[in-house]
């Protein structure tokens, strides 16, 4: 009997490799005249955007690039960066977006490690990139994105992006990948410990991430999306692909400030955006009179360190409907969500805000997520107290780390991807992150979540950012040490804030010392705890 099933083979009518590249073709066919991209004074319809993407793909092929060749891009969220998400993989190449704030040495390392064949670079990053190219042991062709908004900035390469895509054919007849397992993108981790690792995404995973995001975020047709998330970060959480699927209007911005975000919200009637908690912090701490008066709710995805409940209360009061999501570079971005339940509507505002900071349950396209003991792989009890490590499985887990078999096998074992994040499991199946495993503070045998202590500190009205790390201690092994950034113009002493902490949390969790000042952050708004740890050990 089985042979009859086996006799039915795949063919081009019933099996097509999944790729997010199909989204832009479909949207152009259906909604070609609708506005796709807005960047300052520049506007492109979906059909114009599709033409430019095909011209880029054609130009790359004419240059001799093709299947599996890495093309690197260092750029702000501009139309060219968006086009790279389509044009580069349409040519069969692999898109490698680099963090715009890393130093020259790391840029050179990534260009070398990724076997990059071409660098497309925004001249805004002239100084660092020129220094990086000098460190590279080989020549690499460079194409400049020259943004008129920047004025006269020195060139880096000998060709400019517009001239380059003009060599291509806007009617280029590209094809979907032969195999959906083919690499579409190569993203490097932030490298907070040692060298960054290259995370390889495939076409299938990127397609499914987009479909999962539509379902999980309940995205409507034609949202107006403000691209706050840097497109170098997990390919901007895959939203360049997702928003094409929904025929969105995408507002691109180079500047992430409260003033520019508020201006875009008012001018374009933004319906959706994503951003790290630091972005939410910018918005809630902006002067009251600068905030737009909204007569509708804006849907916001936030990911990174869990936003404290106090911040979520403030964002809700502003008309922002924030959903906490969780993910990593290795999982194409967000893979779990705090799916809101009707029975929570009756809770107090403070209780709702606390639940909102849970990362919740797996997206529909994630086949499994759990919290396990790192050493044994056994699931921890769903008691909201026992800490374990978050593990994930599904098609939105990376292919692996580029040229690093050892790290790949260490991260993926027993059918799970091990995240390195500590969490508890609640009885309703919702996961709540407590920390990166390396950030858990073990004091006198007690596990202290730095995220929890930070959550208490954020309740203080004058605190706009807080980070808590372990400080070695002769008696306790480790004790919590806090770094705090205060609202402008506020004066509060360490003794006063420590005294305030007494009324907030258990004695063993309270910071033993507090240092004030601006906190070091990555380009994606994550506080660099390794820098803070180093500062108390020096």
Automatic annotation (TrEMBL):
InterPro entries: AMP-bd_C, AMP-bd_C_sf, AMP-binding_CS, AMP-dep_synth/lig_dom, ANL_N_sf. It catalyses: 3-(methylsulfanyl)propanoate + ATP + CoA = 3-(methylsulfanyl)propanoyl-CoA + AMP + diphosphate. Residues 26-402 form the AMP-dependent synthetase/ligase domain. The keyword Transferase does not apply. Its EC number is 6.2.1.44. It comes from the Bacteria. One of its GO terms (molecular function) is ligase activity. It is an enzyme of class 6 (ligase). PROSITE patterns: AMP_BINDING (PS00455). Keywords: Fatty acid metabolism, Ligase, Lipid metabolism. Residues 452-526 form the AMP-binding enzyme C-terminal domain. This is 3-methylmercaptopropionyl-CoA ligase. It comes from Puniceispirillum marinum (strain IMCC1322).
């Amino acid at each position: 009997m089985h042979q009859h099933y086996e006799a039915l083979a795949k063919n081009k009518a019933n099996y097509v490799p999944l790729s997010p590249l199909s989204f832009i073709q479909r949207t152009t066919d259906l909604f070609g005249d609708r506005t796709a991209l807005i960047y300052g004074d520049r506007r492109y319809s979906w059909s114009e955007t599709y033409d430019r993407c095909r011209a880029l793909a054609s130009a790359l092929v004419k240059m001799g690039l093709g299947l599996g060749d890495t093309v690197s891009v260092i750029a702000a969220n501009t139309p060219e960066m968006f086009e790279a998400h389509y044009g580069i993989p349409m040519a069969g190449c692999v898109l490698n977006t680099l963090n715009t704030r890393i130093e020259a040495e790391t840029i050179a390392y990534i260009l070398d490690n990724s076997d990059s064949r071409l660098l497309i670079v925004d001249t805004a990053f002239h100084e660092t990139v020129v220094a990086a190219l000098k460190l590279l042991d080989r020549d690499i062709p460079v194409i400049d994105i020259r943004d008129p908004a920047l004025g006269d900035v020195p060139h880096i390469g000998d060709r400019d992006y517009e001239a380059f895509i003009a060599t291509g054919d806007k009617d280029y007849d590209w094809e979907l990948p032969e195999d959906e397992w083919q690499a579409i993108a190569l993203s490097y981790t932030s490298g907070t410990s040692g060298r960054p690792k290259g995370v390889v995404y495939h076409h299938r995973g990127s397609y499914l991430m987009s479909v999962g995001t539509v379902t999980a975020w309940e995205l409507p047709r034609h949202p107006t999306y403000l691209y706050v998330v840097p497109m170098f970060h997990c390919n901007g959480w895959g939203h360049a692909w997702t928003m094409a699927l929904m025929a969105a209007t995408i507002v691109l911005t180079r500047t992430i400030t409260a003033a520019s975000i508020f201006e875009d919200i008012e001018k374009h009637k933004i319906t959706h955006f994503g951003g790290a908690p630091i972005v939410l912090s910018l918005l809630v701490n902006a002067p009251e009179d600068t905030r737009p008066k909204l007569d509708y709710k804006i849907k916001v995805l936030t990911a990174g360190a869990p936003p404290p409940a106090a911040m979520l209360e403030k964002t809700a009061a502003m008309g922002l409907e924030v959903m906490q999501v969780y993910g990593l570079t290795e999982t194409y971005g967000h893979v779990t969500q705090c799916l809101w339940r009707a029975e929570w509507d009756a809770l107090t505002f403070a209780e709702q805000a606390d639940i909102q900071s849970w990362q919740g349950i797996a997206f529909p396209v994630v086949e499994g997520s759990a919290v396990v003991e790192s050493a044994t792989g056994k699931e921890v009890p769903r008691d909201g107290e026992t800490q374990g490590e978050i593990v994930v499985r599904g098609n939105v887990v990376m292919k692996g780390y580029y040229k690093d078999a050892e790290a790949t096998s260490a991260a993926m074992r027993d059918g799970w991807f091990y995240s390195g994040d500590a969490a508890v499991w609640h009885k309703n199946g919702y996961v709540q992150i407590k920390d990166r495993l390396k950030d858990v503070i073990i004091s006198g045998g007690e596990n202290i979540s730095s995220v929890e202590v930070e959550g208490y500190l954020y309740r203080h009205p004058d605190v706009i950012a807080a980070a808590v790390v372990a400080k070695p201690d002769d008696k306790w092994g480790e004790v919590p040490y806090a770094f705090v950034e205060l609202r402008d113009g506020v004066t509060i002493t360490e003794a006063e804030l420590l005294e305030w902490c007494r009324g907030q949390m258990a004695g063993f969790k309270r910071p033993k010392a507090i240092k004030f000042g601006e906190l070091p952050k990555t380009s994606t708004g994550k506080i660099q705890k390794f820098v803070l740890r180093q500062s108390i050990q020096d």
